[in-house]
């Protein structure tokens, strides 16, 4: 599963892992992406989304209807 949030668009960040001796190696900071299923009354079906923890909070605040409407307008496959 790709580490990309469908709601917020959060993608992995890149940086360095720094050891005790200060050697730097490349590493990847993945967002906390989880697969969630929501029932959307306007579509009359369940929708599975890959959302980050912040995306879940956005859905709780704005409602699944407005978030799905925005995703469909963006051309995202649901």
Polypeptide structure, described:
This protein has 78 residues and is of the alpha+beta class. It has a domain at 32-77. 27% of the residues lie in helices and 36% in strands. The chain contains two helices and four strands. The protein has helices at residues 53-62, 64-74, and strands spanning 13-18, 24-29, 33-40, 45-52. It has a two-stranded antiparallel ribbon with strand order 1-2. A two-stranded antiparallel ribbon has the order 3-4. Strand 1 and strand 2 form a beta hairpin. Helix 1 (53-62) packs across helix 2. The chain is elongated and about 55 Å long. The mean pLDDT is 96.
Outline of the structure:
The protein is α+β, with helices and mostly antiparallel strands.
Tags for this entry?
structural constituent of ribosome; two-stranded antiparallel sheet; ribonucleoprotein; alpha+beta; Ribosomal_bL28; 78 residues; Ribosomal_bL28_sf; 2 helices; 4 strands; 36% strand; Ribosomal_bL28/bL31-like_sf
Percent in strands? 35-45%
Report Rg. 16 Å
Main β-sheet, in a few words?
Answer: 2 strands, antiparallel
Specify the overall morphology. Answer: elongated
| Main β-sheet, spatial strand arrangement | 1-2
Rounded to the nearest angstrom, the distance between the terminal CA atoms is 15 Å
User: In DSSP terms, counting alpha (H) and pi (I) runs of 4 or more, how many helices?
Assistant: 2
InterPro entries: Ribosomal_bL28 (IPR026569), Ribosomal_bL28/bL31-like_sf (IPR034704), Ribosomal_bL28_bact-type (IPR001383), Ribosomal_bL28_sf (IPR037147)
Pfam family, one: Ribosomal_L28
GO molecular function: structural constituent of ribosome
Family: Belongs to the bacterial ribosomal protein bL28 family.
């Amino acid at each position: 599963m790709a580490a990309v949030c469908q709601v917020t668009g959060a993608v992995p960040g890149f940086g360095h892992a720094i050891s005790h001796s200060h050697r730097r190696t490349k590493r990847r900071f993945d967002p906390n992406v989880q697969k969630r299923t929501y029932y959307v009354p306007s579509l009359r079906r369940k929708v599975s989304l890959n959302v980050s923890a912040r995306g879940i909070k956005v859905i709780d605040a704005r409602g699944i209807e407005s978030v799905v409407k925005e995703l469909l307008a963006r051309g995202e496959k649901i």
